[in-house]
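Subgroup meeting minutes
Present: P.N., E.W., G.H.
Scribe: E.W.

1. P.N. recapped why we're keeping a running log of single-chain structure predictions: easier to compare across weeks, and new members can see raw inputs and outputs side by side.
2. G.H. added today's entry (281 aa).
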Amino acid sequence: MNYYLFLIQLIFTLVAIVSVWQAILYYRRKSLYKSLKKRALPKEWREFLLKVPHYRLLSDETREKLRPKMLYFAMSREFLCAGCEVTEQMRALVSFYAALMGMELEEEDPFNELYTVIIYPHEAVVESLHEDGGIFSEEEIVLEGESTGGAILVVWSEAQREALHPECSNVIIHELAHQLDFEEGAADGIPLLESEEIKEWTTLLGHRYKELKKRVEKRRDLQEYTLIGEYAARSEAEFFAVLSERFFQCPRALKLGFPDLFSAMRKFYGIDTQSLFDRLG
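Output recorded in log:
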């Protein structure tokens, strides 16, 4: 009996310690964020970001709204570079897209489970296990980015090119979208949503994902799904990440081809990217 009483007391003590530690971290984050509201962006950041069409098209008011979020993201994550030194341009670009994507999300830090940003200077070829109809095979793939629990990997040569000369792809947005997906607890293409929104989200995106996957499996012409592309058919998680790329990179094309998907992404991210970035396509 004494043993069980001790065990219960121990559990309550551990829960209390964890709760206190979480409260300490919370107030530290709040304090850091508050202190950054008065801090200007580094000169090197501003000079580089003004070359990025996404940043250049924003109003001064929106840039000001993003400024502390960018600084907070950069200061609360570890940046590593494989075979190179982390530059201020690297910090600025990843932090900008993280702030942009999370600008209107309810959480103050929607990437609170992301701790490390790893930069590769150039593409790398890696072995990957691929499944097709229950048959597994190894294949070589060119690695441009990757996302796991707590970390993202970004190839800088691709990230810089996509940011300065935007088309419909963006490796930083893609990998950060995976992190938003993880926030809900699983890589299933369902980010953190209100309970009443989940059914609507899964019905719409699930239907569109299955349509694309069927076309890819049957080797049919992608037709209207060409904009989204074959890679998005790999999983629901990849479908959401690719849609996030299209939503920010070519909003006009996404809205024209898939008004339902554009509307769902607009509702989730809380911003109208067509209004912000119409000239991007």
